[in-house]
Description:
This protein is an alpha+beta fold. The chain has helices at 16-24, 60-67, 70-77, 81-86, and strands spanning 2-10, 36-43, 50-57, 88-98.
Amino acid sequence: MAYVSLSRLRVPAEHADQLVTAFRHRAGLVDAWDGFLGLEVWHSDRDPGELIMVTRWRDRDTFRAYMRSDDHQASHARIDPELDAVIQLERLEHVRTYEVVAR
């Protein structure tokens, strides 16, 4: 079973590369969390100001625990304040717990 969270982020198009770079150089604190299964950031040239961050977790409880953690706060504290000021969380979506049945 797994739990998936999708964060739809919006930035002015001229800041998209800066946000992608920030994700590429992220602290990685989440990687050590029990129940964390992976993170991807999606970007499309069809909408250059939108990025989608996809995280996968063992279950919703592990996701919630991380979101309340000092590690989550520390990760966000590293974001350049000028970049942080232009990031808008457009929508947070949660995919219900699912079971991977084929790879």
